[in-house]
Amino acid sequence: MQRISEEQRRIRIGRRHLLASEARAQSPVAVADALVALHATDAATVFLSVCARLSDPGVAAVEGCLYEDLSLVRMLSMRNTLFVVSDELAPRVEAANARAVAAKERRTLLKHLKEDGNGLDEHWLDEAERSALAFLDRSGPASGSELAAGVAALRTKITLFPGKKQEAVQGVATRVIRVLAAEGKIRRDRPRGSWTSSQFRWAPARPRPVEETARAQAELALRWLRAYGPATEADLKWWTGWGTRDVRTALAKVEAEEVRLDGGAGAWVAPGDAGPESAPDPWAALLPALDPSAMGWADRGFHLPPEHRAALFDRSGNIGPTVWWDGGIVGGWAQRGDGEPVWRLLTDVGREASTAIEAEASRLSAWVGEARVTPRFRTPLERELTA
Prior knowledge:
By secondary structure, the chain is α+β, with helices and mostly antiparallel strands. Among the domains are: 100-187, no CATH class; 284-386, no CATH class. 43% of the residues lie in helices and 17% in strands. It has helices spanning 6-16, 28-35, 43-51, 59-68, 90-116, 122-139, 144-150, 173-182, 213-228, 233-240, 244-253, 292-295, 309-312, 350-368, 380-386; strands at 3-4, 38-39, 72-76, 82-86, 142-143, 157-160, 168-171, 186-191, 200-204, 257-261, 266-269, 284-287, 322-325, 328-335, 341-345. The strands form five sheets. It has a four-stranded antiparallel beta sheet. Strands 1-10-11 form a three-stranded mixed beta sheet. Strands 2-4-3 form a three-stranded antiparallel beta sheet, sandwiched between helices. It holds the Pfam family AlkZ-like. This is Winged helix DNA-binding domain-containing protein. Keywords: DNA-binding.
């Protein structure tokens, strides 16, 4: 059985994740496809992840894909988390993950409506959704508050968890909008504010082809292996949010090859992908919180020293902005109030690396311009650097 070393795994990140300067992409769609999916819980992360990998980074190119030609799509999918994927891949992600997530969202909302005890049911929800979609057809993109103002049903309030300690009265607008978005009936349009804002407007979504779940899961697993392999069954299970049976079925369907990692653990690669790769020139990167290169595996020990975790993660397990050198995480960075990117190295990487990191910081400043980025999930090191 072929063994793939930790060094080889770090070499693969440089090229396959488009971080080595020689591997940088020409378009945001190429970046999304190379990484399979971009974390989008924090709106700024999408732009920062993409532009770190573009030969000519800029906000306009990413906005054009998200809001003009719609070649990038935001979807509630893996692990019930918001991601951005290419429009071409979106039907497979919908079948592999998003459809089940949407069904769960609908069940949860209907449960809350029933518990409220005021006669709100599936028929009421269907009518509310039809009214919301009709409003968007008439008005064009609208914020959540504008939708609620224009659709009387969305101004309805319900009592959540009645009779329990966490009982609360809330409006249904946000929950109805979330279900419509999860089902791919509406999409997030340009935000109210800059590219760093998550206050999106909503617009009708284009229908997508309906694909078969098992086939879609197999294709998604194969794409993920090409980007993140070698990786363990536990890594794929964590990344997708699938159960063990679905993971094993997908790996078998694509005829994944088993390999050994340093330490003897078994892992998987795409068919024919077990051979060694030559190293690219040494590279540096400043990647945002929740970047796919930091979030692609359940076990990140091959590129993240365990002693760095306390500084770089929040209490919920979200990784903050990271500094990379040649395939490994060596520190963290932040943006100060005056716009200056600052960083702290947690590993002594030498003069060549420090010079390359400074160059990446300058490249980042050039395209970010006047924008200010504060991660949604703040980590100890990021807070220290901005204090």
